[in-house]
Amino acid sequence: MQYISLVTPEYAARRANRANSDCADWWSILDQVFDPELPLVTIWDLGILVNVEKLADFSCKVTVSPTYSGCPAVDMISDDIVIALNQAGVENVAVEVSLSPAWNTAMISPDGKAAMLKQGIAPPGDTINCPQCHSENVNVISQFGSTACKALYRCNSCLEPFDYFKEF
Amino acid sequence: MNTVNNNALYTYVLGLADDALILGQRTAEWCSRGPFLEEDVALSNLTLDYIGRARMFYQYAAKIEGKGRTEDDLAYFRDEREFSNLIINELPNFDFGFAMVRQYFLDVHACLYLPKMMLSSDQHLAQIAAKAIKESRYHLKRSETWVLQLGLGTEESQRRLQSAIDELWGYTPELFIMSEAEAELAQCGVAVARDSLHASWTAQVSAHLSAASFTIPEQDWKVVGGRTGEHSEHLGHLLSEMQIIQRSYPNLEW
């Protein structure tokens, strides 16, 4: 894999926030929650998991920011978060869907981009390479792919169609 | 800063919600009827963005109203005359060219409107705009490409788009008319003064239409009234299809 990981300032800020949090174990539990439409990418790696807090009454507050306004996966993700924490013994969980900070692709972790590549999705970036043969000789078939966050491309070298996670 | 009039704010947000829902519902009619598979998928994704926007605005409107109504009550249990969307959003799709020209007109408008809304003194509206502008810029890339491609395409595509442009042109002045609520809220920096966008919109659209070989129509007629509930004959049919399940089985959940 030719992917060179660069840590964006947005991701670095998220990582620092997580490192300074007093509920490291809860963050770790949520590393088991994946985006339903990107089965190998966790909500942390995708950047939609904004914050995990322990409130004064010791309950757990999780903040998520949706990728797109109409993202139909938000309700399912919220349910998955509650289930994961409940199963790990955290009883009192509230999930807040927040519009701020507005999600963008710079929040995606290097692991998240690597996981996209692994499942045949070209991650967002300056250059779009075919996830199969790495060719740069690609063209867009449709600006919307299988979900709102992806566009449909075709590789002119190996002729395989593929999804591109849009830079946003 | 003046204090914000709650009724005006509710009316303003509800208008934005209705605009998004009605266009989203209209665009959803393409699902399984797109001219080809990729376009079908693209149109359905476009719909999702608008329905998502509608939900954010309705949730906010319901909160401002404070009478315990929900987003679903506002979407499913209001009648035609209570809907305050602009008329251009409710017009039927007719054909793909017509739908693309409408989308293009509205995308240019959104890309002028939303950056101003991001500066609203109402934090929540500013946040919704920050989310929506990225989507609209993407939508615009697509609709302006289609307008160009069909304008410079075949004789038939050129003819169909020109007739769509002529037909839609009279519905565009309404995009720039300030409602009473908007005028009041623009004073205190909450609403966008949409009348100030008309010149930029016309300049941008005219340049692109000319480049795509189209003739710019004369602005000699216009249809207005959507904001005050005066609609075309098409809205009632759209609402009856959209609302029938909730009207037949109130509060039904999936």
What does this structure look like?
The complex is a heterodimer of chains A (168) and B (254). Chain A is an alpha/beta fold. Helices cover 27% and strands 24% of the residues of chain A. Chain A is built from five helices and nine strands. A four-stranded mixed β-sheet of chain A has the order 6-9-8-7. The longest helix of chain A has 14 residues, at 74-87. Chain A is elongated and about 60 Å long. Chain B is an all-alpha fold and 254 residues long. Chain B is 63% helix and 0% strand. Chain B has helices spanning 6-28, 37-65, 71-76, 96-117, 123-151, 155-169, 180-187, 198-211, 234-248. In chain B, helix 1 runs antiparallel to helix 2, helix 4 packs across helix 6 (155-169) and helix 4 (96-117) packs antiparallel against helix 8 (198-211). The termini of chain B are far apart. The model of chain B has no long low-confidence stretch (mean pLDDT 96).
What descriptive keywords fit this protein?
heterodimer, A: 168 residues, alpha/beta, three-stranded mixed beta sheet, 5 helices, B: mainly alpha, 9 helices
